[in-house]
Amino acid sequence: xxxxxxxxxxxxxxxxxxxxxxxxxxxxxTLATVEPNIVTGTVECxxxxxxxxxxxxxxxxxxxxxxxxxKGDLLFxxxxxxxxxxxxxxxxxxxxxxxxxxxxxxxxxxxxxEYAKYQELFEMEAIAQDTMDKLTTQLDAARLDVQAATSQxxxxxxxxxxxxxxxxxxxxYAPCNGxxxxxxxxxxxxxxxxxxxxxxxxxxxxxxxxxVDEYEVGKLKIGQTVPLTSKTYPDTVFSGTIVNxxxxxxxxxxxxxxxLNDQDVVxxxxxxxxxxxxxxxxxPGMLVSVNLDEVGEAQ
Length: 299
Hints:
Blueprint: H1 2-33, E1 38-51, E2 56-60, E3 68-69, E4 74-78, H2 81-123, H3 129-168, E5 171-173, E6 178-183, E7 190-191, E8 196-213, H4 214-217, E9 225-230, E10 233-254, E11 265-274, E12 287-291
Antiparallel strand pairs: 1-8, 1-12, 2-4, 2-7, 3-6, 4-5, 6-8, 8-11, 9-10, 9-12, 10-11
Protein backbone atom coordinates (compact mmCIF):
# COMPACT_ATOMS: atom_id res chain seq x y z
CA UNK A 1 0.00 0.00 0.00
CA UNK A 2 2.85 2.30 0.93
CA UNK A 3 4.54 1.63 -2.42
CA UNK A 4 1.34 2.57 -4.27
CA UNK A 5 1.20 5.88 -2.40
CA UNK A 6 4.82 6.57 -3.24
CA UNK A 7 4.22 5.80 -6.91
CA UNK A 8 1.15 8.04 -6.93
CA UNK A 9 3.09 10.86 -5.27
CA UNK A 10 5.91 10.52 -7.80
CA UNK A 11 3.45 10.73 -10.69
CA UNK A 12 1.85 13.84 -9.21
CA UNK A 13 5.24 15.55 -8.78
CA UNK A 14 6.26 14.63 -12.33
CA UNK A 15 2.97 15.95 -13.63
CA UNK A 16 3.46 19.24 -11.82
CA UNK A 17 6.97 19.58 -13.12
CA UNK A 18 5.82 18.84 -16.66
CA UNK A 19 3.02 21.37 -16.37
CA UNK A 20 5.44 23.91 -14.96
CA UNK A 21 7.87 23.25 -17.82
CA UNK A 22 5.14 23.68 -20.42
CA UNK A 23 4.03 26.93 -18.81
CA UNK A 24 7.60 28.18 -18.82
CA UNK A 25 8.01 27.25 -22.48
CA UNK A 26 4.76 29.03 -23.36
CA UNK A 27 5.90 32.08 -21.42
CA UNK A 28 9.27 32.09 -23.21
CA UNK A 29 7.52 31.72 -26.56
CA THR A 30 5.25 34.63 -25.71
CA LEU A 31 8.20 36.78 -24.73
CA ALA A 32 9.98 35.85 -27.93
CA THR A 33 7.05 36.98 -30.04
CA VAL A 34 6.91 40.42 -28.45
CA GLU A 35 10.59 41.24 -28.84
CA PRO A 36 10.93 44.53 -30.76
CA ASN A 37 11.94 44.40 -34.40
CA ILE A 38 15.19 46.34 -34.29
CA VAL A 39 17.89 46.69 -36.92
CA THR A 40 21.26 48.34 -36.57
CA GLY A 41 22.33 51.26 -38.71
CA THR A 42 25.49 53.33 -39.03
CA VAL A 43 25.73 57.12 -38.82
CA GLU A 44 27.22 58.72 -41.91
CA CYS A 45 27.91 62.33 -42.88
CA UNK A 46 28.49 64.21 -46.07
CA UNK A 47 32.21 64.28 -46.81
CA UNK A 48 33.75 66.34 -49.60
CA UNK A 49 37.27 65.65 -50.80
CA UNK A 50 38.90 68.81 -52.13
CA UNK A 51 41.52 67.75 -54.66
CA UNK A 52 44.18 69.57 -56.61
CA UNK A 53 42.91 69.96 -60.15
CA UNK A 54 46.30 70.83 -61.61
CA UNK A 55 49.82 69.84 -60.54
CA UNK A 56 52.01 72.36 -58.75
CA UNK A 57 53.56 73.52 -55.50
CA UNK A 58 51.18 74.39 -52.69
CA UNK A 59 51.60 78.06 -51.79
CA UNK A 60 48.93 78.56 -49.12
CA UNK A 61 46.68 76.46 -46.87
CA UNK A 62 44.87 78.99 -44.66
CA UNK A 63 42.78 76.36 -42.80
CA UNK A 64 43.55 73.74 -40.18
CA UNK A 65 41.90 70.58 -38.93
CA UNK A 66 38.85 71.18 -36.77
CA UNK A 67 38.19 74.63 -38.22
CA UNK A 68 34.63 75.57 -39.12
CA UNK A 69 34.42 77.16 -42.54
CA UNK A 70 31.73 78.69 -44.72
CA LYS A 71 30.94 78.10 -48.36
CA GLY A 72 33.32 80.14 -50.52
CA ASP A 73 36.22 80.25 -48.04
CA LEU A 74 39.69 79.70 -49.52
CA LEU A 75 41.01 76.22 -48.72
CA PHE A 76 44.34 76.19 -50.56
CA UNK A 77 46.21 77.72 -53.47
CA UNK A 78 49.10 76.54 -55.64
CA UNK A 79 51.89 78.19 -57.63
CA UNK A 80 50.68 80.15 -60.66
CA UNK A 81 54.00 81.09 -62.30
CA UNK A 82 54.15 78.31 -64.89
CA UNK A 83 50.55 78.93 -65.88
CA UNK A 84 51.10 82.67 -66.17
CA UNK A 85 53.94 82.02 -68.62
CA UNK A 86 51.67 79.73 -70.65
CA UNK A 87 48.97 82.40 -70.54
CA UNK A 88 51.35 84.95 -72.06
CA UNK A 89 52.37 82.51 -74.78
CA UNK A 90 48.79 81.54 -75.55
CA UNK A 91 47.68 85.17 -75.71
CA UNK A 92 50.48 85.94 -78.21
CA UNK A 93 49.42 82.98 -80.33
CA UNK A 94 45.82 84.22 -80.35
CA UNK A 95 46.89 87.71 -81.45
CA UNK A 96 49.05 86.29 -84.26
CA UNK A 97 46.27 83.97 -85.43
CA UNK A 98 43.82 86.84 -85.38
CA UNK A 99 46.09 88.93 -87.57
CA UNK A 100 46.45 86.08 -90.10
CA UNK A 101 42.70 85.62 -90.13
CA UNK A 102 42.03 89.31 -90.71
CA UNK A 103 44.61 89.41 -93.53
CA UNK A 104 43.00 86.42 -95.21
CA UNK A 105 39.56 87.99 -94.92
CA UNK A 106 40.87 91.26 -96.43
CA UNK A 107 42.36 89.33 -99.36
CA UNK A 108 39.02 87.62 -99.99
CA UNK A 109 37.23 90.96 -99.93
CA UNK A 110 39.71 92.37 -102.46
CA UNK A 111 39.38 89.39 -104.79
CA UNK A 112 35.58 89.44 -104.55
CA UNK A 113 35.62 93.10 -105.66
CA GLU A 114 37.86 92.30 -108.61
CA TYR A 115 35.77 89.28 -109.48
CA ALA A 116 32.63 91.43 -109.63
CA LYS A 117 34.30 93.88 -112.01
CA TYR A 118 35.72 91.13 -114.22
CA GLN A 119 32.34 89.42 -114.26
CA GLU A 120 30.79 92.51 -115.87
CA LEU A 121 33.57 92.63 -118.47
CA PHE A 122 33.19 88.91 -119.09
CA GLU A 123 29.49 89.31 -119.73
CA MET A 124 30.38 92.03 -122.24
CA GLU A 125 32.85 89.58 -123.81
CA ALA A 126 35.67 92.01 -123.06
CA ILE A 127 37.85 89.36 -121.37
CA ALA A 128 38.50 85.68 -122.04
CA GLN A 129 37.20 82.68 -120.11
CA ASP A 130 40.73 81.80 -118.98
CA THR A 131 41.02 85.06 -117.10
CA MET A 132 37.77 84.39 -115.24
CA ASP A 133 38.86 80.86 -114.44
CA LYS A 134 42.14 82.09 -112.95
CA LEU A 135 40.32 84.68 -110.86
CA THR A 136 37.81 82.10 -109.68
CA THR A 137 40.64 79.79 -108.60
CA GLN A 138 42.36 82.63 -106.72
CA LEU A 139 39.11 83.53 -104.95
CA ASP A 140 38.42 79.92 -103.93
CA ALA A 141 41.97 79.55 -102.58
CA ALA A 142 41.62 82.81 -100.64
CA ARG A 143 38.39 81.59 -99.06
CA LEU A 144 40.13 78.37 -98.04
CA ASP A 145 42.85 80.47 -96.45
CA VAL A 146 40.18 82.25 -94.41
CA GLN A 147 38.78 78.92 -93.24
CA ALA A 148 42.22 77.70 -92.21
CA ALA A 149 43.07 80.95 -90.46
CA THR A 150 39.72 80.91 -88.65
CA SER A 151 40.35 77.35 -87.42
CA GLN A 152 43.81 78.32 -86.16
CA UNK A 153 42.38 81.36 -84.41
CA UNK A 154 39.65 79.32 -82.72
CA UNK A 155 42.20 76.70 -81.64
CA UNK A 156 44.39 79.42 -80.14
CA UNK A 157 41.38 80.80 -78.31
CA UNK A 158 40.74 77.31 -76.92
CA UNK A 159 44.29 77.16 -75.57
CA UNK A 160 43.80 80.52 -73.88
CA UNK A 161 40.52 79.35 -72.36
CA UNK A 162 42.22 76.20 -71.05
CA UNK A 163 45.09 78.18 -69.56
CA UNK A 164 42.69 80.62 -67.92
CA UNK A 165 40.71 77.70 -66.49
CA UNK A 166 43.89 76.17 -65.06
CA UNK A 167 44.80 79.54 -63.62
CA UNK A 168 41.44 79.79 -61.86
CA UNK A 169 41.92 76.28 -60.46
CA UNK A 170 45.13 77.15 -58.65
CA UNK A 171 42.86 78.33 -55.83
CA UNK A 172 40.18 76.01 -54.41
CA TYR A 173 37.26 77.26 -52.33
CA ALA A 174 34.84 75.48 -50.01
CA PRO A 175 31.80 74.21 -51.94
CA CYS A 176 29.69 74.12 -48.76
CA ASN A 177 29.70 74.89 -45.06
CA GLY A 178 31.48 72.34 -42.92
CA UNK A 179 34.40 71.32 -40.75
CA UNK A 180 37.93 70.66 -41.94
CA UNK A 181 38.48 67.09 -40.76
CA UNK A 182 41.77 66.43 -42.53
CA UNK A 183 44.61 68.39 -44.12
CA UNK A 184 46.59 65.89 -46.15
CA UNK A 185 49.39 68.08 -47.54
CA UNK A 186 51.70 70.91 -46.50
CA UNK A 187 52.73 74.25 -47.96
CA UNK A 188 55.63 73.82 -50.38
CA UNK A 189 54.69 70.28 -51.29
CA UNK A 190 54.54 69.35 -54.96
CA UNK A 191 51.19 67.69 -55.59
CA UNK A 192 49.80 66.01 -58.66
CA UNK A 193 46.43 66.41 -60.31
CA UNK A 194 43.75 64.63 -58.30
CA UNK A 195 45.63 64.67 -54.99
CA UNK A 196 43.31 65.14 -52.00
CA UNK A 197 44.43 68.20 -50.04
CA UNK A 198 41.47 68.92 -47.74
CA UNK A 199 38.68 66.72 -46.42
CA UNK A 200 35.58 68.70 -45.55
CA UNK A 201 32.77 67.20 -43.46
CA UNK A 202 29.28 68.66 -43.25
CA UNK A 203 27.93 67.43 -39.91
CA UNK A 204 24.57 69.06 -40.59
CA UNK A 205 24.00 66.63 -43.45
CA UNK A 206 23.78 63.36 -41.48
CA UNK A 207 21.91 60.16 -42.11
CA UNK A 208 21.65 56.54 -41.03
CA UNK A 209 22.29 53.63 -43.36
CA UNK A 210 20.45 50.54 -42.14
CA UNK A 211 20.17 47.14 -43.78
CA VAL A 212 16.59 45.85 -43.57
CA ASP A 213 15.73 42.29 -44.59
CA GLU A 214 13.35 41.53 -47.43
CA TYR A 215 10.51 40.58 -45.08
CA GLU A 216 10.40 44.05 -43.55
CA VAL A 217 11.59 46.41 -46.27
CA GLY A 218 8.28 46.25 -48.15
CA LYS A 219 6.54 47.88 -45.18
CA LEU A 220 8.72 50.98 -45.32
CA LYS A 221 7.96 54.11 -47.32
CA ILE A 222 9.76 57.35 -48.02
CA GLY A 223 8.68 60.06 -45.58
CA GLN A 224 8.00 57.76 -42.64
CA THR A 225 9.51 58.77 -39.30
CA VAL A 226 11.43 56.28 -37.17
CA PRO A 227 12.77 56.41 -33.60
CA LEU A 228 16.51 55.93 -33.19
CA THR A 229 18.57 55.09 -30.13
CA SER A 230 22.29 54.90 -29.48
CA LYS A 231 24.33 53.23 -26.74
CA THR A 232 26.31 56.45 -26.52
CA TYR A 233 23.18 58.33 -25.38
CA PRO A 234 20.94 55.64 -23.84
CA ASP A 235 18.44 58.16 -22.43
CA THR A 236 17.84 59.96 -25.72
CA VAL A 237 15.49 58.97 -28.53
CA PHE A 238 16.42 60.58 -31.82
CA SER A 239 14.09 61.12 -34.74
CA GLY A 240 14.80 60.22 -38.35
CA THR A 241 12.94 60.28 -41.64
CA ILE A 242 13.22 57.65 -44.35
CA VAL A 243 14.48 59.37 -47.49
CA ASN A 244 15.40 56.38 -49.64
CA UNK A 245 14.71 52.66 -49.80
CA UNK A 246 17.11 50.96 -52.19
CA UNK A 247 15.61 48.63 -54.75
CA UNK A 248 18.89 46.78 -55.16
CA UNK A 249 19.79 44.03 -52.66
CA UNK A 250 22.77 44.72 -50.47
CA UNK A 251 23.92 41.35 -49.11
CA UNK A 252 22.59 38.12 -47.64
CA UNK A 253 22.14 38.03 -43.87
CA UNK A 254 21.13 34.38 -43.77
CA UNK A 255 22.69 31.75 -45.96
CA UNK A 256 20.68 28.74 -46.98
CA UNK A 257 21.87 25.22 -46.23
CA UNK A 258 21.22 22.01 -48.05
CA UNK A 259 19.91 20.45 -44.87
CA LEU A 260 17.32 23.17 -44.29
CA ASN A 261 16.57 23.64 -47.99
CA ASP A 262 16.01 27.34 -47.31
CA GLN A 263 16.70 30.40 -49.43
CA ASP A 264 19.03 33.29 -48.69
CA VAL A 265 17.46 36.24 -46.91
CA VAL A 266 18.79 39.46 -48.46
CA UNK A 267 18.78 42.98 -47.11
CA UNK A 268 18.10 46.36 -48.67
CA UNK A 269 19.78 49.60 -47.69
CA UNK A 270 17.45 52.15 -46.11
CA UNK A 271 18.64 55.75 -45.77
CA UNK A 272 17.25 57.63 -42.78
CA UNK A 273 17.96 61.36 -42.55
CA UNK A 274 18.48 62.88 -39.11
CA UNK A 275 16.44 65.92 -38.25
CA UNK A 276 19.52 68.07 -37.56
CA UNK A 277 17.78 69.58 -34.54
CA UNK A 278 19.42 67.30 -31.98
CA UNK A 279 21.70 68.98 -29.44
CA UNK A 280 23.67 65.79 -28.94
CA UNK A 281 25.92 64.92 -31.85
CA UNK A 282 25.84 61.50 -33.45
CA UNK A 283 29.26 61.09 -35.00
CA PRO A 284 30.02 59.20 -38.20
CA GLY A 285 30.58 55.51 -37.56
CA MET A 286 28.36 55.31 -34.49
CA LEU A 287 25.91 52.42 -34.37
CA VAL A 288 22.23 53.30 -34.01
CA SER A 289 19.27 51.02 -33.28
CA VAL A 290 16.24 51.49 -35.56
CA ASN A 291 12.92 50.28 -34.16
CA LEU A 292 10.85 49.13 -37.12
CA ASP A 293 7.82 48.44 -34.88
CA GLU A 294 7.39 52.16 -34.19
CA VAL A 295 7.63 53.55 -37.72
CA GLY A 296 5.34 56.55 -38.08
CA GLU A 297 3.14 57.65 -40.93
CA ALA A 298 4.67 59.16 -44.06
CA GLN A 299 4.68 62.95 -43.97
